[in-house]
Structures are given as structure tokens and as C-alpha cells.
Amino acid sequence: MIIILFGAPGVGKGTQAQILADELGIAHISTGDAFRAAIQGQTEVGLIAKRYVDAGDLVPDDVTARIVEEAMIKPDCQNGVILDGFPRTRAQADALATMLSRIGQEISCVVNIEVPNEHIVQRLLSRGRADDTVEVINNRLAVYQQETAPLLEYYSKLGLLKHLDGVGSVEEVSQRILAIVSQPS
Questions:
Q1: SS3 per-residue string spanning 58-69
Q2: Which of 63, 82, 159, 161 is the most buried (most CB within 10 A)?
Q3: pTM, to two decimals
């Protein structure tokens, strides 16, 4: 079972991915965590990524895909995985499709957690982080719309996309996601 969680920054993907992983007994791969593990473990691809990160540059799609693949072939991912933060671009989506084909897996569903931008801004401002300003948040939302949102159409055409109302308590949203991923394809 391969589940992809989509949604703009601040919709709660990480929280929901961990709850879902625990509930379904499958692994949760956060791209950020996979990057940190590869860099800390000094894997070949981790060292490549570190050069980009240290320079403050975006890590190229092919390197990102290799880091996710490195994480996905670990034993704890054999029963399935929830991807949070990957893919973010069409190139990453294509790399994921190639990787899954190579290891004999396929995407079960793609869940798009939808929350109005006004709610997202308020959620992120309430965290109180220094880097969460209205300008930074709006920029992150714009980047998401430009780079990642087009993947929704891509996965919709493949019949994998499910939309979900992400407004509500953590528990309410978790129950909605579980209902969606438990439906037969």
C-alpha cells in the first residue's frame, strides 16, 4: 500500500501521515526526515544532497527521488508507506512511478487535504515560529500552487486522486482520511 498525502504547507500532512501510519501499521516517509537521515548516515546520495543544502540551494529532483527510494527499500517499508512531501514536481512523480514499477509496487491512492488559505495562514501564524510571517507563508503557498498543485491533475487523470476537507479537529480529519484510504480502489 502506497499512499501519497498532498496539501499546501500547513494543512497538517505530517501529523495526519503519522496517525495514518500508526493506524494502518505502515511506514511514514517525510521527505525532510529522509533527507536528514541520508545526510546524517553519510550515504552516497546523502552526501550529494548535503552539498546542495549547505549551499542553500534546492536539491535537484533526481537526488530527492534517490533519497526517497533509499528510504523506501528499507525493511520497515515492506508493508507499505505513506509519502509526505514527495513528490512535489512532475519530474519527481515520474521518478516515483519508475521506482515503484522497478520494485513491483503501485500507488494505492493520493489524498489531497484541502484547507482554505485563510485557515492555513492562521494555523501557521499561531505556531509562533520566527519564520512564519504572513509574507513567508503566502510565498510558500504560491510556490505550492505553482510547483506541486499541477500534480493533482496528473494523479486525477490516473484515477488515484481523492479530495478531502481538512478543516476540523485532528481526529475528525484522521477519520475522513481513514475512510478514504479504506475504500476499495
A1: CCCHHHHHHHHH
A2: 82
A3: 0.91
Where is 172: in which H helix or E strand? helix 170-181
Q: Per DSSP, what are the bridge partners of residue 5?
A: 84, 111
pLDDT tens column, 68-115: 999 998 899 989 999 998 999 999 999 999 999 988 899 999 999 999
Q: What's the rounded Cα separation, in Å, for the pair 162 and 42? A: 37
Cell numbers placing 120? 492555513
Q: How far apart are CA 175 and CA 16, in angstroms?
A: 10
- How many C-beta atoms lie closer than 10 Å to residue 137's C-beta? 21
Q: What are phi and psi of 73, to 5 degrees?
A: -90, 5
Q: Containing H/E element for 122? A: helix 117-126
Cα Rg for the chain, rounded, in angstroms? Answer: 16
Q: How far is it, in rounded angstroms, from Cα 82 to Cα 4?
A: 6
What letter does residue 28 receive in the DSSP assignment? Answer: E
Bridge-based pairing of strands 81-84 and 27-30 is parallel
